[in-house]
Fold this sequence. Notes:
heterodimer; A: alpha/beta; Aconitase, domain 3; Aconitase, Domain 2; five-stranded parallel sheet; 17 helices; 19 strands; 33% helix; globular; B: Aconitase, domain 4; seven-stranded mixed sheet; 8 helices; 7 strands; 31% helix; binds iron/sulfur cluster
Amino acid sequence: MTTPMTMFEKVWAAHEVVPETADTPAVIFVDLHLTHEVTSPQAFSVLRERGLRLRRPDLTLATMDHATPTRTEQVFGGAPITIDSAAKQIRQLEKNCADFGVELLGMQHRDRGIVHIIGPELGVTQPGKTIVCGDSHTSTHGAFGALAFGIGTTEVGHVMATQCLLQNKARTFGVEVEGLLQPGVTPKDLILAIIGKVGVSGGTGHVFEYRGAAVRAMSMEQRMTVCNMSIEAGARAGMIAPDDTTYAYLEGRARVPKGAAWQEALQRWRQLPTDAGAVFDRSVTIDAAALEPMITYGTNPGMVVPISSRIPDHRGDPVFDAAMRYMGLNPGEPIQDAPINVVFVGSCTNGRISDLRAAAAVLRGHKVAPGVHMLVVPGSQDVKRAAEAEGLDVVFREAGADWRESGCSMCLGMNGDTVAKGQYSVSTSNRNFEGRQGVGARTLLASPETAAASAIRGRVTDPRELMNG
Amino acid sequence: MQPIKTIRSTTVVMPSTNIDTDQIIPGRFLTTTTKEGLGEQLFADWRYDASGAIRPDFILNQPAAKGCRILVAGRNVGCGSSREHAPWALLDYGFLAVVSTEIADIFRNNSLKNGLLPVIVDEATHAWLLANPGAEVTIDLESTTLTLPDGRSVRFPIASFPRYCLLNGVDELGFLLAKDPAIRAYEARHAQ
Lengths: 469, 192
Ligand code: SF4
């Protein structure tokens, strides 16, 4: 009898080129390397300096998302990109991809989008793969049972040159989600609650595996939202075992195997889930049924409360005090009804079609409150087309929201889509760090439903108040 | 990369916990295509006000911070974004080591790869360092120890491979490139 293994251990074992020793980390093979304009230029420079080729262009896919404009005239109309350094970075990626033979889904490509949205869309994200990208939210792809994690630019260079990484094996962390989410409570609320419970460094050194009834009941898009934010609890990666939901999502996508190869892949993928009796180094249990919509009040994603409750009072804790000062909020106040200025729906956390549908469903027939700017940015051009085919763009526009081309946009404000100093933003993205959405911007993280409801009222609003049934 | 053996310096103390990489180097500075010059923007939103003027109350703007090579930070420093611009900015500014009780995974990795030494110490040592900003501390990579001014010494953990690389100024890419035969064998086994 073989020892029962976790899914992480199986994927790890299958990718060891050279095992770990007491003195050296393991050499791990990378099946898919995704890359973008911001964290790749210095890595390409290293290849040039050392006269190296990019080893496996066939396993490398580039896009541009972080610094790209979202205004149609700048993406398609030849209007200049506002930020010079961003324009330069974009041109640099085009040149680097051309020089090194990397496939680039460039500015006007129909498949362009946020790197973590397009991998699954195209079907290059698959169960059992090792997937890396110079971006911490690479954990998103773990929703398919892939081992996917963010790396720094030096490591981007390592993968370019050798298709491998030096890695020490992480520890495993089982996140058991019991029960089912109530109506109006979303996977975003679940992952915010998990981060609140585990803490922003609780997962350090670990790979999460999300398990249990609530996880099994989720669509792939919902599972991606959960895995996406694993890094916000400090975990390197988050994984969910593949199942029929996974296979149904992948079947027929542009870059998945076809015919006999598909059958063969299915057989392999079915071996991936954690064996009965396998032991996680750590674990935590969450009751999904007990959750309500969650919203952050502070300056890291772990500073989160149920929307109906009050901001806690931890006065005397310097982190808490600093967060209150920065956010201009007071301990003990209800978070609900806090006035807001900006609503952002988008990002690799909640920029998929189901997220836009959820926001539109709340917004339909309503107007964005006077004085509130609502920005809706699809996660990819494919999401944008799908939304327009369903008329979601009309719902957003008629409500008074801005509808844009895809990209990271206001998630990190690199492209000039920012929240002004002191303003409050309800955002479906993943980080409420100081200045993340613009200098002095105050970010409250929430689900697309909560964001849309808050846009209508102009203050933090429980979406269940606006939902039918 | 320059070999690192010993770092002796006074400390700069930033006691906040969860100092994320968005604070270390805000996103709007990431449109650069080189590693150089980022020290200018290190902790930009804490160092400068909206008009770009220096905030005199911020620790790095105080005379005692001049020339300090060791940053002592609160727990879980470097969390958030994987941007390697964070260690690049710290190094470009002049820091050579970051000391805390807990250092986020990706930042720690990125630091090691650039010769910024991540030093994890126990609670008591950390508390002492936080309470004594500007203390002269010695970090020795050979013996993996951090020594306080009174001579008290504590060990810090570091895996033997990055330690070897830092001590010898060896870069990891060279090591990986030398694994080419094993990589080729792996590729051959997995070729469809
Ligand atoms: S949407 Fe935000 S979190 Fe996601 S990849 Fe872009 S910048 Fe990073």
